[in-house]
């Protein structure tokens, strides 16, 4: 780069991390100007279903607000509507019959701004809408799949599948769990497989069914159950009825559902081979596994009713569900990437943010928050950029990112592996339930101390 020339930053991937980084670099251009380009492999913003609810917590909101301009922030309520009566933004964990083991008390707030004043609060957010909001005013170049790059002393030449190339001073891989940028930069970094299968889907739940769930889980919007065979169920929703829903006999709510189980159960003789491209068969498989691993009880029946609501084909979903359901149901292996599991991580003009560097399983709800915080931190570090010190800027970002995210990945992994361990007999179950209840007691004790003594 010539002296005085504006440096170019290329971002690969227009997900939550890449888009937050774009906005932050553009927002701070008075302090440090970059020519920022963002490339996405999908051909349009609607190419791939971005569904499911995600919890955005206090540090995620703080970072997001620092990254985006006010024009984009004014649209955030579309993705994070204000809490409505009857909603309790927290998680409730029960046993397989619906007996509550854990329900952390969380300060409830009027809107997403309020989350920044809570220490453990979050707001349940529509992930697809958040992505749409972040796409506004971002000049994403769609249909540009990155295939690799060449790095020299002078800069980075980026290659795309359509044969085109772009040159930049800094390349940021924000290209998710299967990041081609990561595979080239840190080829030894391997994806860790949990041996756990994760099936998730979006459904429209009628009010009468929702009322049953709310009663068991005391109005909590995130609901988890722990089975006896290392299996878990998860349900998340907002109590905001879908507008213009086809069935007008009662309100329906957009709901994310998930079921996890140790993959070894797929190898048992009674198991049938699943065609993951056939949603109807994946739904049948999920129901089969629930019936196999869960004792017969009212809660099991409730879960089966929920899975029965999954659209059996993508076209059906789009017509009936008003929110798009391109992949009505997905089945995959639970995986993560520990960024410190390699001996060396060489800082260069090419760096990574979000899932590309440290994908983690969704059990603690950290992934999106971390991707947005990475974007915020990297853009802050780049404010000091010059052609002589770019390495130290990126090093400053990477040292903190590697240490903190490695610890997040390992904590999340340990929790997920514990939840996927079968509990044997009566005493095992008693010990597990007692430990969870004690953790709940401790969390709620701190909540009371914080709220009523320190008035936080
Ligand atoms: C079921 C589920 C629930 C979750 N719940 C939560 C939650 O409650 N809270 C939370 O914080 N997180 C949650 N997460 C995780 C969160 O969604 C992700 O961690 C987050 O979206 C990561 O953002 P990202 O920008 O790094 O990657 P992504 O959002 O995956 O974006 C990567 C982008 O890069 C593009 N791309 C990929 N390859 C290329 C290429 N070669 N060329 C160009 N573009 C490319 C992709 O198309 C994509 O648009 C959940 C995840 C799942 C699956």
TrEMBL record:
InterPro entries, per the entry: FAD-bd, FAD/NAD-bd_sf
Source organism of this protein record: Rhizophagus clarus
Name assigned to this protein: FAD-binding domain-containing protein
Domain FAD-binding, chain residue ranges per copy: 330-398
Alphabetically ordered keywords of this record: FAD, Flavoprotein, Monooxygenase, Oxidoreductase
Domain of life: Eukaryota
Matching PANTHER family: FAD-BINDING DOMAIN-CONTAINING PROTEIN, MONOOXYGENASE, FAD-BINDING
Entry keyword Oxidoreductase: yes
Pfam families reported for this sequence: FAD_binding_3 (PF01494)
Record GO terms (molecular function): FAD binding; monooxygenase activity
Keyword Electron transport in record: no
